[in-house]
Amino acid sequence: MGMSTRIGLGVIALVSACSSETPGRIVDVRWQFDQNLGGDNADFETETGFQVHLEDARLALGAVYAFSPAPSSTRAVAQLRQWLLPVAHAHGGLDPETGRKVLAELPRATLVDALAEEPRRSALTTAEAGALDALKLVFADSDQPEFQGGSVFVRGQAERAGETWAFEAAVTLDAAPKVRSVDLTGLRQTLDDGALLKIGVRPREWFRLCEFAQLPATPAAERVVVTADTQVGRALVIGVRSPEAFSLSVGSDE
Question: Structural domain boundaries of the chain?
Fold first, then answer.
């Protein structure tokens, strides 16, 4: 038996082993965005000592995926399956970066108002029942004018030691897929019929490292437009991709 034949048979065996995994029970679930967690999304103090009041805080998401625990097969085998079999990002499909199985997905673009008083629920969608231990949020580019083609828009004011900085910022992320997503790992949740996947959004984490005193001075009546080349602009790019800025809990859709 030639080398190419042995490799071919090995590939078939590996793919067959992966493909033999049986899908779980299909259930109906909803997604919910719990934006105004504890009522403190609009007013908070940063780690750098600034009191921040937000008037607007929105983000554009392209998709959200909930994953089952990592498969027993290696990542290399999972990638091999990706190359040889058509796999979509849908429940039962695999994430191309990690090889994790997708249990549930919210594939539609969603504009999230992080200061909204009422939670926002999706329509019923099908998912796969089972243990859930990771979540991926994928940012999108919004077509809202104030976003300027970016994924996040914020407006508000910061105060410290008697000084005030009124600001607004449109945050644009690099095109690399890894930069345009946030991974929440180590979750211990279970999906079943009637589950409600509640995503919490904490904009205070976006501002954790912001040094507003480094923004250029402007007249009191004007607002500083934060650009990407400022310390605040760079800190926001880091902050909006922080796993601490998001949370997931699973409840009952009642």
Answer: 25-71+100-252
